Amino acid sequence: NRAMFLLTVREDHASPTRAEDQGLSDLMTCKDMDQEVVDNGDRDGFKGDDDVYFELLMGRITGVLRLLKTGYSDPWGIEELFEGARNALVAALQEPDHHALFRDIQPAGQMQRLDSALIEYYLWLASCQTDDGGTRRECVELAAVIAIRMMFEDEYLIGDAAVLALRALIEHTRYDVVVDGDDDDDDTTEDEEDSDDSADGIRTALSQYRHGIEEAIALSHAGKDLMSRESYTAANMGDFSMETF
After folding, report:
1. CB of 214 within 8 A of CB of 163?
2. Residue 192: which residues within 8 A CB-CB, separation 6 or more?
3. How far is it, in rounded angstroms, from Cα 147 to Cα 169?
């Protein structure tokens, strides 16, 4: 928690460099302690419940994503966190009816939580590319592939996950507008114009659907008292230790 605080408020700290150094140091200490707990967990159990390790990894992923968006380089190794969370989820799926991870949220919901974090990560990677070329498109396509899985396969969607999935699909429509044909022909063909119109129509429909979900989410919290709304917001911001320690 101190690491996240110092790194987040660095610019307003009396000594920004000192705050950043201390925050990064705390972060590495936290990472080392996580590994130590995991090593002990192999023998003694991880904090008693099988679901805690997955929840810890999801909290770490959320925190690292926030730091990446703030402008820090990856201070932890977020892809390792994703791999660890995926392995924990796959292991839990071996006993979907009895595992503690699915006590409150069904397997599809837990998968959506992980998938939505991956979508957010790939969209962030895309936003970091300076050109509109291959690398950026590849990141958007990866996000869209994950998004379409949950939109197509899952009967119910977590609201925030659905919003992120639709955002990825909307971004993908900005690239998926070229039909097969002669790339050397500079003239705009009728097929290309139809493709542009089709992409615009799909993008509009997806945007309207996303807006409707966002309104539903907002309305679901509008009737709650201030403390409930603030607690919900804080719980979804993520940090490095509050969820599990």
Report:
1. yes
2. 178, 179, 181
3. 7
Residue among 45, 62, 138, 58 nearest 105 (CA):
58
**Which token pair is 51?**
């679901």
Q: How many helices (H) and strands (E) does the chain have?
A: 9, 0
Nearest alpha-carbon partner for 51 in 5, 113, 4 = 113
Phi, psi of 217 (to 5 degrees): -65, -45
Residue numbers in the chain where pLDDT is lower than 70: 37-50, 131-133, 176-197, 221-245
* pTM (two decimals): 0.75
**Which amino acid is present at 147?**
A
Q: Position of tokens 């970091």?
A: 128
Instruction: Cite the beta strand spans of 39-140 per DSSP E.
Output: none
245: which 2 tokens?
Answer: 């320690």
Q: Which two tokens stand for residue 221?
A: 């919290």
pLDDT tens-digit profile of 131-178? 666 788 899 999 999 999 999 999 889 989 999 999 999 999 887 544
**Identity of the residue numbered 116:** S
Burial call 29-48: b when 16+ CB within 10 Å, e when fewer: ebbeebeebeeeeeeeebbe
Token couple for 220: 């679901």
**Residues with Cβ within 8 Å of residue 205, at least 6 apart in sequence:** none
